[in-house]
Amino acid sequence: MKRRYLKYVVILVAFFIWTGLSFLSGKIISAIDNSMDEIGNASYKLENLVTVSRSPDWKYGQGFYTAVVVITPNTVSSYDVICKVHVGNANYYEQIELGKADSLAEALEKWGVIKWTDDSLIIGKDGPLQKVVSREQIETHR
Predict the structure, then answer these.
(1) Residue range 23-27: average pLDDT?
(2) Cα separations (Å) of 101 from 27, 117, 132?
């Protein structure tokens, strides 16, 4: 009699183990799929990246702000050039319009230099296309 019930208990335990493993494998595959989606929807594509620079030791510490200059297609042969100043490790950023360029090389020539001073962020070489953003403006996120 006990042997007869033992057979059903073993079948029931095997069923629960199988169900649990199926559930866990589904969760693992779902997590991998979601992480791949995040990679596919990355904020920046390498071919659009002009330059990146981290801030000096400002109010919230060294590297708290990250300036990222990128090109975004505007037309078939023209690009908008922007700088996103990221705050901390969050997705929050301030977008700064820099201008237009016909290629990545042209954008690099115009805005490929980033300099942080005690009171400002300077994007681009000296000249009329250079963009200066005050430290106060950047630190207004808090």
Answers:
(1) 68
(2) 45, 26, 19
Report the predicted TM-score, pTM, of the whole model to 2 decimal places: 0.67
Which strands, in side-by-side order, build the sheet including 120-123?
114-116, 120-123, 131-134
10: its two tokens? 């073993």
User: Backbone phi, then psi, for 116, in 5-degree steps?
Assistant: -105, 130
Please compute the mean of the pLDDT values over residues 64-92 and round it to a whole number: 86
* Cβ neighbour number for residue 107 with a 10 Å cutoff: 26
- CA separation, residue 123 to residues 48, 52, 69, 83, 111 (Å): 17, 11, 9, 8, 6
Residues with Cβ within 8 Å of residue 24, at least 6 apart in sequence: none
The whole-number pLDDT of residue 100 equals 94
